[in-house]
């Protein structure tokens, strides 16, 4: 008899853990995977003793489900999702639901949504964040798509999602097709947060000459302050970590970071929609530069920077300045991320609940932090808020950090430290707060060489 609540396809780390989470919340799940032998392995090992069942084919899988059929895909984006949707369509009826929980590109989500809507099948594209640890204990879920599906998946999704505050789930209906866009911006912000922390670490290490244990202690302290976040917390743990030989591991790890998928897509979208989300762009470029290791080794032997000198100021006070530069830059990064969401909402006619989105990022996500609560407050107080920097709390926070931020950037520049994200954040702030920018000269030049004409100021 068909009695399973939901099926999940994709038995890699995310799929397995999400199944176990749903099982723990009392749902009966049917598991399936392209390589079918992994179904039996999973049932015999990780899922042993649970109510999870398996299927040897898609046909068998759907035959075990209650109507409407609910099927989650947690497989590699693009090809695997395309392939499974093609195979599922002939088996499904009007009103059945396919949910793509992988990191699909939002344009693919729109394509699936439209194709499946024409066939009467309800499609949901859901961002899932929290990784390997979040999936079993409570991920952050950002579902968007065909809203008719929401009543059928809401209990499961909100039941298994991470909870914050007085038990509010980090999951709410995002908007038609916006789930993967929101996840993409989340991942872009994550790129920015990671890079900002790297710049703080670089300044501590190479300007202040701090020992690894001192840096770990600083990040531990910071984790009780405004920059308290999961990423700050793990930075302290990583700095403290020693290998089997009792040596710190971090200095032995290669300084080459990859970049792919959602971080890049965020940066591309900012150009596409003409929104100056430069911090995410710089975070992606910083990874690109890091990956040119062989070239950098050659260049380091030829290109000279400033003479290395001992830091002569007050070390403790400069450390506080770095913390403030990090905080202010982080505010700019989130302000830019929400600018991108706002522009996408205009482009696609979405009504986005920015406070609700912030709540979804509060628990389990890689970017989870206390600071997100303040962002939620800002959007709850004024859902029409044009820019986070115009909220009174964030306006004063940035103003309070401004002198330290300028000092850190100028000191770092003089010491030859690359700080693309601290610097671009400060430039954005300075640009955004200027009524008159020098772009009048751009207009004039364009007219001079190309007869483009120009627009005069209203009071000219
Ligand atoms: P992977 O992204 O490594 O994907 C593995 C799964 O995709 C397996 O079930 C594999 O089947 C299936 N698959 C592949 Br690969 N190519 C296929 C194809 N052409 N046709 C059908 N199935 C195919 O797994 P994951 O790390 O668990 O992530 C799942 C999704 O969740 C991804 O989109 C990922 O970006 C996203 N995500 C991951 C994390 C994370 O922390 N890992 C966090 C948030 C979101 P097989 O067993 O037969 O090879």
Structure commentary:
There is one protein chain. The mean pLDDT is 95. This protein has helices spanning 13-24, 37-44, 58-63, 79-88, 106-118, 131-137, 150-160, 179-206, 212-222, 230-240, 261-272, 278-291, 293-302, 315-348, 354-360, 371-381, 392-414, 420-432, 439-450; strands at 6-9, 29-32, 53-54, 70-73, 97-100, 122-129, 140-145, 163-164, 168-169. It has a seven-stranded mixed beta sheet with strand order 3-2-1-4-5-6-7, with helices on both faces. Helix 11 packs across helix 12. The chain is globular. The protein is α/β, with parallel strands linked by helices and 460 residues long. It contains 19 helices and nine strands. It has two domains: 6-176, NAD(P)-binding Rossmann-like Domain (Rossmann fold, 3-Layer(aba) Sandwich), CATH 3.40.50; 183-432, N-(1-d-carboxylethyl)-l-norvaline Dehydrogenase, domain 2, CATH 1.10.1040. Helix 1 links the parallel strand 1 (6-9) and strand 2 (29-32). The structure holds nicotinamide 8-bromo-adenine dinucleotide phosphate. Nicotinamide 8-bromo-adenine dinucleotide phosphate (NBP) binds at residues 10-15, 33-35, 38, 74-77, 79-80, 83-84, 102-103, 128-129, 131-132.
């Amino acid at each position: 008899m068909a009695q399973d609540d939901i099926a999940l396809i994709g038995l890699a780390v995310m799929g397995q853990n999400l199944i176990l989470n749903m099982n723990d919340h009392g749902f009966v799940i049917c598991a399936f995977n392209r390589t079918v032998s992994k179904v039996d392995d999973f049932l015999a090992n990780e899922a042993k003793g649970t109510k999870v069942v398996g299927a040897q084919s898609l046909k068998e899988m759907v035959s075990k489900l209650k109507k409407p059929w609910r099927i989650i895909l947690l497989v590699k984006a693009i090809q695997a999702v395309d392939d499974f949707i093609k195979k599922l369509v002939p088996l499904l009826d009007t009103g059945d639901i396919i949910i793509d929980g992988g990191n699909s590109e939002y344009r693919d989500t729109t394509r699936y949504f439209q194709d499946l809507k024409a066939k009467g099948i309800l499609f949901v594209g859901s961002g899932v964040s929290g990784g390997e640890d979040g999936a079993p204990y409570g991920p952050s879920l950002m579902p968007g798509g065909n809203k008719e599906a929401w009543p059928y998946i809401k209990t499961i999704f909100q039941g298994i999602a991470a909870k914050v505050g007085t038990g509010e789930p980090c999951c709410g209906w995002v908007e038609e097709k916006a789930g993967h866009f929101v996840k993409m911006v989340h991942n872009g912000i994550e790129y920015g947060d990671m890079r900002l922390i790297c710049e703080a670490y670089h300044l501590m290490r190479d300007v202040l000459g701090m020992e690894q244990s001192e840096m770990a202690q600083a990040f531990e302290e910071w984790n009780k302050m405004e920059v308290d976040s999961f990423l700050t917390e793990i930075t302290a743990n990583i700095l403290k970590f020693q290998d089997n030989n009792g040596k710190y591991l971090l200095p032995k790890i290669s300084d080459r970071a990859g970049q792919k998928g959602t971080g890049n897509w965020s940066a591309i979208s900012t150009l596409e929609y003409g929104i100056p989300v430069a911090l995410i762009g710089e975070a992606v470029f910083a990874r690109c530069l890091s990956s040119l290791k062989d070239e950098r080794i050659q260049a380091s032997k030829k290109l000279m920077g400033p003479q290395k000198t001992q830091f002569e100021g007050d070390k403790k006070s400069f450390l506080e300045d770095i913390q403030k530069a990090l905080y202010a830059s982080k505010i700019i990064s989130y302000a830019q991320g929400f600018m991108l969401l706002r522009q996408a909402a205009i482009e696609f006619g979405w009504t986005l609940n920015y406070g609700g989105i912030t709540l979804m990022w509060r628990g389990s996500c890689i970017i989870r932090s206390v600071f997100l609560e303040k962002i939620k407050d800002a959007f709850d107080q004024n859902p029409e808020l044009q820019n986070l920097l115009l909220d009174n709390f964030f306006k004063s926070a940035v103003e309070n950090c401004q002198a330290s931020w300028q000092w850190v950037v100028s000191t770092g520049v003089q010491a030859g430290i690359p700080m693309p994200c601290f610097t671009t954040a400060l430039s954005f702030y300075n640009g955004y707060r200027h009524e008159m920018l020098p772009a009048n000269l751009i207009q004039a030049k364009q007219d001079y060489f190309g007869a483009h004409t120009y627009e005069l100021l209203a009071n000219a």
